[in-house]
Model the fold of this input.
Amino acid sequence: MKSFYGTQLSNPLMLGTAQYPSPAILEQAFRDSGAGVATVSLRRESGAGQTFWQMICELGVLILPNTAGCHTVKEAVTTAHMAREVFDTKWIKLELIGHTDSLQPDVFQLVEAARILTEDGFHVFPYTTDDLIVGERLLAAGCEVLMPWGAPIGSGRGLNNEYALRAMRAEFPDVPLVVDAGIGLPSHAAQAMELGYDAVLLNTAVARAGDPAAMARAMMLAIEAGQLADLVDPIEARDMAEPSTPVIGKAFLS
Ligand SMILES: CC(=O)[C@@H](O)[C@H](O)COP(=O)(O)O
Done:
């Protein structure tokens, strides 16, 4: 498994901490799924106060603070500095929103903020589009991980552009890649792993499910299934049929 800035994840599920019905259900979702990373929004969840930060720290998983809700480089950089103080970590999930309806990242500001934060010693996890050139620019700015979107945040649409995500995997074979946002179902998470992605980050699909803890577990099982399938050389899809038993009386190929 690839490492994330030198750290091996205990497993490839990164789980958000927003919108759960209660703190107890949030904790249960982490326990039942065994998620390896918790992402937490400094701006959106700052109202919850010290008790909430404490609870997140006590989950016993790696913390990936994020800059959700930031629209400018200045806001994102300031929020990243706050996060480093609160959670004592160099990791920052850099979100810089550029479009109100789709919450599409502003990739121009994203690259600039990534460069500033990297020079300042941060380990940046950029939430980006599935654009190859933006990916290249983020790597050139010092990022060692890329987090392309599956679909707009909270949409639950799954992988909107499988072609582009596949192209990113092929273009950056050695870079840890995480599908971030838009996952709605376990099958979407499995699909991301089948493409050879290294992890999946999701929040809404679990937090807003009828039973968040059970959905978190379902996501983890799907991620494990997709990861295993990717490792064991799956067959290529074909247009034409091919008999499963090509030679009468011969059950095995060899
Ligand atoms: C919590 C978080 O980091 C989100 O901004 C993230 O992008 C997840 O998106 P979904 O809620 O669509 O899973």
Remarks:
- The two ends are 32 Å apart (CA to CA).
